[in-house]
Amino acid sequence: MHHWLFLLAVLIQPFALATQLVRVGVAEFPPYIEKRQTVAGESLHVELLELMNAFQSEYRFVPVATGTVRRFQDFDAGKYDMSSFDNLAWGWGKRPVVASEVYLRGGEVYVALAQAGRDQRFFDDLAGKRMIGMLGYHYGFAGFRNDTSYLRKHFRMSFSNDNESTLKLLLAGRGDIAVVTEAYLAIYLKRHPALREQLLISERKDQEYAHTIILRQGIRPSVEEINTLLRRMRAAGVLAPLWRKYGAADD
């Protein structure tokens, strides 16, 4: 009996060793990435990585916590090699990275306090408006520059660490217009329906998300392998229910 167990262990060992760990950097980006639930719990990015692990056996995708400000420094230091719910336009510059196909779309909207006589025209010209957004994020209205001194100087911008804090700053009168992830706002207003009447939400978007997976150039898996994996998961019908579960449905 022990002899067979030993042989089985010898046979299994090479396959276990063959599984390659792929470190995935995760920075706060609700509802797509909830850093407080990096390893376990109900979170979109956690479930996506679990699906990616379940649909193949060559790689093991593991989350590595980083931050919206330090994520490029951590990448340059080799702390992670892959980033999900990302885009090359969000500060990657000339770094040696490649991007997967777009697998999910979304966007960011402007939010202001609802006041008498204020309508959608309030969002037409942002000049002179006090903006509110998340520290380290790249916004369309600023040409995707995330330099805090530039944003403070040109947009009198106040910064938060998450979307909820962004909205709280707006409600407290700390700015004129907040920029919030559209999917997050929908979830937030479901939880706090009374706030809907207090807010004016723009029909115009600050930017349209085209979510891709960013990979360090030359690593395994290759971008072709990632694209194939995403297509298999989409064809199996597991991605659309996941997007819907977290209010991030690709409509």
Could you characterize the architecture of this molecule?
The chain is α/β, with parallel strands linked by helices. Helices cover 32% and strands 25% of the residues. The chain contains 8 helices and 9 strands. It has helices spanning 2-18, 44-54, 71-76, 148-155, 163-171, 182-191, 223-235, 239-245; strands at residues 20-26, 59-65, 82-86, 97-99, 104-113, 131-134, 158-160, 177-181, 199-216. Strands 1, 2, 3, 4, 5, 6, 7, 8 and 9 form a 9-stranded mixed β-sheet that branches. It is globular.
Number of DSSP strand runs = 9
Number of helices: 8
The secondary-structure element order is: HEHEHEEEEHEHEHEHH
The N- and C-terminal alpha carbons lie at a distance of 57 Å
Helix content: 25-40%
- Proportion of β residues? 15-25%
Structural class: alpha/beta
The rough form would be described as globular
Main beta sheet: 9 strands, mixed
pLDDT averaged residue by residue: 89
Spans of at least 5 consecutive residues with low confidence: 1-16
User: What integer value in Å does the Rg equal?
Assistant: 21 Å
